[in-house]
Amino acid sequence: MLTRQQLALKRIFDISISILVLPFAIIPLFLLLIIATFSTSKNGLFVQQRIGRYGKPFALYKIRSLKGIHHEDAMQIHQSETKFGSWIRSTKLDELPQIFNVLIGNMSWVGPRPDVPGYADKLQGDDRIILSIRPGITGPATLKYKNEDALLLQQPDPKEYNDQVIWPDKVEMNKKYIRNWSLRKDIYYLFASIFKK
Predict the structure, then answer these.
(1) Where are the domains of the chain?
(2) Helix spans in 41-138 (H)
(3) What is the pLDDT of residues 75-116, one digit of tens each?
(4) Which CA distances in Å does 36 have to 83, 85, 91, 190?
(5) Which are the contacts of 6, defined by CB distance < 8 A and separation ≥ 6?
(6) pTM for this predicted structure
(7) Which residues contact 61 (CB under 8 A, 6 or more apart)?
(8) 137 with 95: CB under 8 angstroms?
(9) Residues 6-26, mean pLDDT to the nearest whole number
């Protein structure tokens, strides 16, 4: 578990990066929101409840990429995704509004990816260490499963595969990340997310 000093350093890093990035991101963000609004015929800003630090729910912001109801099921994503939505999800630009989640303080740049209710909030014992830090936009598990949607589409039962294979693996990776945390590693994961294909 991170010490108070480490948590403070991580938060200072988050705020500093957000302040540096925001001036360059604000115009593209508004343009993408406008395009998403026309593409999906709904508000381009999608807000969904996710589980954050200490197991508390928070509103996560994304650029809408799907028509109709936003489902977690990979088959539903495939069927209702617009061309613009497919592109924005593949480039991860749909997560651009999460800069504000970081500034608000319910997310970090690097950490365990926040899940919908029914996963992180159900963790028990040692696994609950994952809830001791803010969830992140990227991290080791996010990088490993950057093509998670495509992987799930290959499975006969995407939800079962996620619950039995992907989720337990993410839990172990995130526990290791927290137990071995360093600012240097956060910087590495952030740059790897940008530059690694």
Answers:
(1) 4-195
(2) 74-80, 83-91, 98-104
(3) 444 546 778 888 898 888 999 999 999 999 999 999 999 999
(4) 10, 8, 14, 26
(5) 181
(6) 0.90
(7) 45, 46, 47, 97, 98, 100, 101
(8) yes
(9) 97
